[in-house]
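Can't paste images in this forum, so I'm doing it all in text. The chain is below; anyone willing to post the predicted structure tokens underneath?
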Amino acid sequence: MTRGPGGAPEARVWSRRLGGLIRSDFHVHTTYSDCAAPAAAPEAMVQAAQEAGLEAIGITDHIVSPTNFDRPWRVRQELPAEVGGLRVYVGCEAEMQGPDKPSISRELAAGLDFTVFAASHLHNIGPEVLYGLKPPEMAAFMIELMEGAIETGYADIIAHPFHAPLSPHPFAEVVGAVKRDALLRTAEAAARSGVAIECNPRFLVEAPDAAEWLFSVLLEGGCKLAIGSDAHHPDDIGCRGPGYGTEEELREIGISEECLWRIEERATNRPREG
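Text version of the structure:
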């Protein structure tokens, strides 16, 4: 990462070359997610993706409980599969509410274009987990959740690893407590199963050293990375703006086109081991 005098990061200028790394965004929320901005109507998010010059967008509204099961189908009713050359996929962000407790079933997942699984939303598990675990325990538990998502057989992407909203322990602190060998084994398991792990360039801004270490271990384990913005507002689509690391910074830490997940190769299109 480019540093200025005294080791501080230099001011970044966001850029995305046509045909570069950030061609798609497969972690996008709309107003069907309770946490999205009022401006995040499905049509507005698609328009923002077109303005960003993306080739594909994946809508991933939250499914936490059965009351949310209809969200992907309501989005699909509003959006065509293609708009002006932009491919529009509809999936969901499901939850691992325990190592063996996914919030969606295989049958529900089968009707979606792809699935993203959160393995770090401890606030949806309980306050005793969110506030009761110290960073080493939290990191180990998140590894268990990631492995559980892989073992479902119908996860395509694991979202924002080790980022726990509302936690008293920030991303960098949790990542700092991760055991390298355990993470490497998880990355290798993801690679064998064809499951990608999300690379959100936002973490290159918020915690550059932790993010660089995390992504380097995932790459060493051979799993694919899926670049996603976790957009809750149209301005975030395509990882735009100073809140996200640049394509140049992604390349500096070893991320190339060959490392990236493509929906055409999604894991749930292929038979699983065993």
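Strands lie at 24-28, 56-59, 62-63, 82-83, 86-90, 93-95, 116-118, 157-159, 196-199, 225-227. Confidence is low (pLDDT under 50) at residues 1-19.
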